[in-house]
Amino acid sequence: MNLNLPARYFYDLYGRKIEDISKVPLLEKCLQNSITPLRGLLWVSKGEGFSPSGAKMYIQGVLLALYQRLKSAKKYYKQLNLVMNEQKEKITEKVILSMTAKEHHKEQEEVSRLIDELQTAIKSNIGHLCKLGPQLQAEQEQFSSYVYQHIKSLPANTLVPGGLQLKVFENGKNTGEISVGISKKDLGSDSPIQTDHMMERLLLKIHQRLQGSSINPPGLNYSSMRLFDENGQEIKNPLSLKNEQKIWVSYGRAYRSPLNLALGLTFDRVSAFARGDIMVAYKTFLDPNAVLLPGCGNWEVCEGFPINFNCTSQQIPDQFEKVDLENHFLQNKVDPNIVLHASVSIGKWSFSGSEASSRSQIAPSILWPVASVWLITKTGMILSRAITQGCLAIGHPIRVKAAEGTSLEGYKLILQKRHSGDDSQKWVFGTDGCIYSKAYPQFVLTYLEELNAQVDVTQTEYHIHHGAWTTAHQEHGRNLAEEVLQESASNLGLKQLPEPSDTHLMPEGSLEETGELTVALVRKLEEKHPKASAQRWAIKHEGTSKPGQWKHSRVENPLWNKLTYMWPVLPSGQLNEEFDWPIQGLLVPSSPPMKKPICKTTEPYAPVRLRVLQNGEKNKNRSVTILGPDISPGRKTQCTEILNLPSAARRLYNEKGKEIFALKDLQRDELVYVSCGELWINPDLSIAQQKKQIFLRNLESDIAKIQIFCSTHKIEALVLEVQSDIVSGSKLAVHKPVAIFGEEKQVTEPEEKQMQEDPLTTENASSEILDSHVRAHLRMKACHTLPRYAWQETSHDFDEDDSLPKKTEKGLFENVEPQKKHSCSPKHSKLHKHCHQQFEYRDGQIISHAAPQLVLGVQGPNLRSGMEVVLVEKKSDGSHQRWIHQEDSRTFHLVSNPDLVLAVSMTKTRNEVCGYPVIVQKYKPYNNGAANQKWHYMKNIKALVAFHSTALDKEITSANYAGVCTSSVIKEENIDQPGYCYLSPDGKRKTMLCLACGQSMRTEKGLKQLLPGVPFLCISGTKTQKPFLQGPFKVISVAEVDLSCDKAEKTLSYYQARLLSLRMKTCTQAASHSGMAATHQKAVKIIAYKNGDGYRNGKLIVAGTFPMLLTECTEQLGLARAASKVYTKDGTPIFTLRDLVLWALDESFLQRDSEKQKQDAAPVGKEQIIVESMEENPRMKVKNRLFAKSVTSDSLDGIDKSLLTLILRNPIAIWVSCGEPFLPPNALQKAEKLEKQNWLKKDRILADLDTMRHKMRQLKGRRVAACQPATMVPTKSPVQPVVVEGGWTEQTQQEIKLMELIRHTEAHLSEIQEMESKINFPIATKRIAVKPSNLYKQPNTKRVWIYLNGGRPEDGTYAWGKTISELLQDCSSRLKMTHPARALYTPSGEPIQSWDDIERDMVICVSMGHGFKTPKELKQLMEIRANYARIRRQQGPQATDIVVSPSTKLLSLAHLHN
User: Fold this and answer.
1) How far apart are the first and last CA of the chain?
2) Which of 150, 482, 639, 803 sits 20 to 30 Å CA-CA off 693?
3) Phi, psi of 319 (to 5 degrees)
4) CB 1382 within 8 A of CB 1407
5) SS3 574
6) 599-642 per-position pLDDT tens digit
7) Torsion angle of C-alpha atoms 252, 257, 258, 259, degrees rounded to 10
8) Does the structure show a pLDDT above 60 at 389?
9) CB under 8 Å, gap of 24 or more: what pairs does 657-660 form?
10) Three-state DSSP class for residue 722
């Protein structure tokens, strides 16, 4: 069974351990499938308890199989019974018909016995499943801990040796605890360095333990697993865990607290003290066992302290919290002496309602399970679910003091007995997530703790003393009420109420409420206030009634739906009627914004499908499609493999050559060019031009390497110095010294003289640099240093012998860097620079002379090559700051890692201001190529000189870092240097390469690094060089380059001049090509509109050719068909870009002439004028005043280029069509305006018609309701002697007139509608006569289904046209016919002669002039042609030369007839 542990126990179907195999019952007979009887079933355990879920799955599978067998057996038995009933025609099993009577009887008995066995087995298994019910329920409740019941849990204070016992909860829940035991073996190593490995093993162990539970649903991977502690901090180090610690598990999501903040009620018991006429109420201890809260029905809300309360006369405690007697209290109906006071506060409440954590620390409190649940009504009241008689209301004024020191006005929140007409108990839910008071619209519900605010007791407006408010407080409260009323009068249209009660009588000396408030009514903050979230609220549904209420909420932010929050109003401010009112739930503070926030953070981009091409590729059809979420190394590796690049992909470009750094701005299926690091190559260039461009770039790259070598191969004396202030953490670099360091003998004597003449100079330098005042001045000077030109610097006049002035002989460090004019104190600047370059090597440490407490060291526990050396605090045990000076190799080795030495970083070009940075580098034991690791400690002047080596060593080092082959520096000389080697294919010859050559071809051959002490010359520069050994250069040959000490500059100048000449030559050729192209075409800026859209949705297009213009217009304007015609605003058709430019010139001159005519009343008689817009530029002139109104093509070349540029500066407006006639831009506006007028006129007529019909119905109703009898009028006519007149059945005269008016109005309305149907949208300048239609007027264009003559109709396509000629032309293009279409036929072969014969969506056969052919006839014709060609090919051309002549019999008959 492939168990990972030895099997320990057997369990039967009910979880009982099996000790004896013989006691295992036999399987049912119908389940036996072998000769040997089978027993079972047994479940194998590795030591854990029995899991009934496995048995349940087995029984369900068995039952399914048994039911299927029983169904088949019953069906077969029914077929057997049909034989007995002599109904053989209904039998479908042929085997039954071939049975004899005896066989049939025997088969019937066997099937009957099988049915009985199956039914018995089904009943037995159903009974097993029922008996497993309690065990299955227990396993479902206890999750995976069910199988570990036999293991006793240790007490909480018991320490597990070498392991942990953790309590695991699901993220956001505080129930369903699962215990997980972690042993030391599970975690592996307990080394602090391997915490990542230990954390991974811990996550895997917890993930395995949670398998099958609700915390770990199937399908989740433990790689996304995260652990959090009680404070919400993510656990990343297993060593920080403690035994019996509670942790929360999340799979990829952020931490969600199991207890959430919500607005709730806190209840405190109240007692009263009475002495005479004075009564004081105060909070007392509330015993949870003595006072129970059975339900809201047993309590009554009292306005004021209850009268029937038995007050005590005992002495009041020293410390008690006073309660105002005017507050509202809860009195128990059974025991009136039990009185509670409810306080409104913010607490941590479980959304399940089972747990709560109160924030009140004044007195013990008891909470109802629904004390945090509220009912929001349509009238705006917020009722307590625990006390439905009570509602949230406004209390007395308070003063809130914010954290920043500002004081805010506010009101306390209390629970009051509800009154329908009290606006202080009504609230308005705004569209911004705030809850406004209807009485004070400027104030909103505010969570004070997030606002970091507290109630200022000293400035409480509700300060009561000696039984009443003072006059000043009353006046202030009255002014505050007036201010609030005035400010809120125009806000939200809410009704105002007067201030709360302004007088409260209390006994003298009473203590007042000092409880800390967590929620209050505070003035509304600004929307962009950093603490504005403290005034946003949300409703969280609570309870089992009305589930799914949150789905009716209409909030823009999707986070609300994710948190199942709801809000009772719509974005328009109206109440949401979709809710099942009243709304029940928790009031949660600090809710997310209601509007969807603008995401400024960088989110993961959606995958983008791109088409990639190699850089410079011309054929876009060779593009490869990839899916790129972002520009990652893996994605670039994919490009390298797919495009088969010669080296790794490094850079991406778009079609215009702009480099791409992120894929967020790219569109789907956009073309991207991939390069191996080189610049973009324009694919539009010819292959020769591309090769020239690549050659010039490669040559430029090679020259750049030579230039770097020339700038660094002659490194002068550089000394170590501190880059910035001498403080801990400052970086170090090598820079030019303040003084020129020569030989020690030449420096010693001036140094001694200086020390003798000014012995305090060195000491004062250290003290002055360390002075904070001096450092501050130097910093300010550095920040405010202004840039100066060369003539602003102070110059030094030297003598003819270039000797220094006598005044500067005394200073040793004054002849390298001249003093700046901006330095107010030259002495301080000089000493500052001097002390930055002074170091002392003592006791294995390199100490800063200016600050002896700072030494050179490396920060960080993980040492590696390339780490920067900085100043660190001096420590006696610091191994990362101690150095070993090897005088023979002139290196400083780090004590903690002797392989690392003090070195100068040469990876970057030298900065004249900062110099080269100083790092630790792996030691190179070579005689040449490691000059940056060589130092010379000058003890007398306390300086560390870098690059203390030979000139050859410096040159080789510079060549290695510049990427230049060392054979071009040294000619025909073997030297000890870093390098590589590889063996020939036969393994007999070893080829050696320098460092630069080896790095350039490392990927091509299996190179091995050379050991020190092997002198060699790089093979790239030898005469026996092979063609494939190009070396580090891309274009230049290494053998032809001479970079020796005296010829390096000349070589650089030669190649720079060569590059310049090649560039000039290429630019000249490109200019000639572009000049020729310019004569043919010039890019023009155009703003294109769709024909018929007027001036709407224009697109800016830059085109160089007319076909390009049509293509861009089709794509950007989204035309259904290809653009074919271009018009200007006056309807002029344009066929070339030159015509468009000429029209623009003509239009500009016409506009200028019209402007001149407006400005000048009299005609101008001069023949030449100067254009006003060209006065600023004298070159732009028009020679002839009487310029032709229409400029010809030939005259375009004679126009001044500046004038042409000025006119074409603005884009030219064009209108593009797919072949339809031009529609003026203003025709659309006129048509819309006319249509709007007609609609308004028709609406007025319809309204009048409805009014008249309504009046008609009213008149008829009155006549019928009156039931006036008719009048019998006698007549003299014998036919009709009596005529009936009047009565309720006859229409009145008013009705008859009104009916005529209605008919006239209806006729007028029908005329207007008929006119609207006849109005044709002005597509063409000439109207096309169309047959009048009774219903509506159809457009002229018809769509038909066309197919080729002799083809199948299903192989056709659609075509459009207004006439037969236009339809024939469209058929030729859409069917791609070799000859133009000439005739049209119906599918039956009838020719179509008239346009009226063509109906919409009609199937038409198109012919090139031949007669109608069916597919069968075309096939026969093709066979005849094929036979003809085959016979000529097989038997020769003479085989088809057949002459048919009449027979002799026929001729004789004709002769007789004649």
Assistant:
1) 111
2) 639
3) -110, 115
4) yes
5) coil
6) 544 444 566 788 888 888 888 888 888 876 544 554 566 777 78
7) -170
8) yes
9) 657/682, 660/631
10) strand
**DSSP assignment letter at 1177:** S
- DSSP at 1063: H
Using an 8 Å Cβ cutoff, are 719 and 734 in contact? yes
Beta-strand relationship, 1212-1217 and 1125-1127: antiparallel
Q: What sign results for the dihedral spanned by CA atoms 1408, 1410, 1416, 1417?
A: negative
Bridge pairing between strands 1403-1407 and 1342-1348 = parallel
Calculate the average pLDDT of the chain. 75
Q: Which amino acid is at 499?
A: E
Q: Are 736 and 718 in contact (CB under 8 A)?
A: yes
**Contact at 8 Å (CB) between 1224 and 1131?**
yes
Place of tokens 């309807």: 1131
Residue 1187: CA count within 13 A, CB half-sphere: 24
Nearest to 37 by CA among 22, 58, 17: 22
Q: Using an 8 Å Cβ cutoff, are 47 and 95 in contact?
A: no
**Chain CA centroid to CA 890, Å:** 55
Query: Please, what sign has the CA dihedral across residues 136, 138, 144, 148?
Result: negative
Q: CA torsion sign, 921 to 923 to 929 to 930?
A: positive
The number of CA neighbours under 13 Å toward the Cβ of 1161 is 0
In the chain, the percentage of residues whose pLDDT exceeds 70 is 75
Is-contact 1081 1104, C-beta < 8 A?
A: yes
Q: CA-to-CA distance for 1003 and 13, rounded, in angstroms?
A: 66
Q: Are the C-beta atoms of residues 433 and 421 closer than 8 Å to each other?
A: no
List all residues 6 or more positions away from 1376 whose beta carbon is below 8 Å from its beta carbon: none
Strands 732-735 and 916-922: what pairing?
Answer: antiparallel
Closest listed residue to residue 1145, CA positions, set 1179, 1182, 1108, 1178: 1182
Distance of CA 1012 to the CA centre of its chain: 54
Sign of CA dihedral 9, 15, 19, 21: negative
Whole-number Å distance between alpha carbons of 1411 and 1417: 11
CA 1235 to chain centre: 46
Cβ count within 10 A of residue 1303: 10
Read off the pTM.
0.38
pLDDT in tens, 677-710: 888 888 888 888 888 888 888 888 889 888 888 8
Which residue, 533, 553, 587, 523, is CA-closest to 392?
Answer: 587
Residue 931 burial (CB count, 10 A):
26
Q: Are 385 and 375 in contact (CB under 8 A)?
A: yes
| Rounded distance between C-alpha atoms, residue 734 and residue 935, angstroms | 11
Give the length of the chain.
1458
Question: How many Cβ atoms sit within 10 Å of the Cβ of residue 16?
Answer: 11
Q: Which of 739, 732, 725, 719 is nearest to 851 (CA)?
A: 725
Task: State how far Cα 470 lies from the chain centre.
Answer: 61
- Which one of 198-207, 483-492, 1094-1103 scores highest in mean pLDDT? 1094-1103
Whole-angstrom Cα distance, residue 1082 to residue 371?
80
Tokens 């006046």, located at residue: 475
- What distance in Å separates the CA atoms of residue 793 and residue 789, rounded to the nearest whole number? 7
Q: What is the mean pLDDT of residues 296-308?
A: 77
Sign of dihedral through CA atoms 993, 996, 1000, 1003?
positive
Closest CA to 394 of 378, 380, 375: 380
Q: What is the pLDDT of residue 516?
A: 67
- Cα 525 to Cα 450: distance, rounded to the nearest angstrom: 13
Q: Which residues contact 1450 (CB under 8 A, 6 or more apart)?
A: none
**Least confident segment among 739-753, 968-982, 1085-1099:** 739-753
Per residue, the 3-state secondary structure of 905-922, as one string, reads CCCCCCECCCEEEEEEEE
pLDDT digits (tens, 9 = 90+) for 205-240: 888 777 766 676 655 666 678 888 887 888 888 888
Which pLDDT does position 60 carry in this prediction?
A: 87
